[in-house]
Amino acid sequence: MPAPEEVYSIPAAYRKMENTHILFWLLKDISWCMIWKTLGLLMIAPTLGIAIVIAWRTRGLKSELAHNLAIVCWITANSYWMASEFFRFDALVVAPGINGKHLALVPFLVGLGILLYYYLVQKPREAREAQVAAL
Q1: What is the pLDDT of residues 60-87, one digit of tens each?
Q2: d(CA 42, CA 19)
Q3: Phi, psi angle pair for 61, to nearest 5°
Q4: Which UniProt keywords apply (predicted)?
Q5: 93 in Cβ contact with 70 (< 8 Å)
């Protein structure tokens, strides 16, 4: 008989915050697409701020924390990239073969590193601990 599947439940207040976060994120990216600089730049703070709060609130669940920290990194990279295009330093050469836009890779890669650590180290460790606990 298979073990019962674990259920992850999100409190209604958290769900409302996550939905508001999606709204801000969409407004930021639509502003980027439409080159509405002021609105796009204004949307960085609430989009990133709510992502940080969500990550903080999920800090007790390693899987959720890893994914939410990766989202914080994604929004950071995405916001930097948007600003680099708005202020036209995206094509500025900062090193051979590297321009201003490429610096967005730093937070993108940090987020990827967090997820790689979770999936290659943390999750297998949790699976081993669960097997030992089941014995």
Answers
A1: 999 999 999 999 999 999 999 999 999 9
A2: 18
A3: -115, 105
A4: Membrane, Transmembrane, Transmembrane helix
A5: no
CA pair distance 25, 28, nearest whole angstrom: 5
pTM over 0.85: yes
Query: What domain range includes position 21?
Result: 12-134
C-beta neighbour count of 65 within 10 angstroms: 19
Contact indicator for 50, 59 with CB cutoff of 8 Å: no
In a domain, 70, yes or no: yes
Q: Is residue 38 part of a domain?
A: yes
Give a yes or no: residue 2 inside a domain. no
CA distances from 90 to 66, 87, 123 (A): 29, 8, 37
Q: Is residue 4 part of a domain?
A: no
Closest CA to 126 of 1, 6, 23, 43: 6
- Cβ-contact 109, 83 below 8 angstroms: no
pLDDT at 93 over 80: yes
Among residues 8, 21, 96, 25, the alpha carbon closest in space to that of 54 is found at 21
If one counts the domains in the chain, the total is 1
> CB-side exposure of 38: number of CA atoms within 13 Å?
0
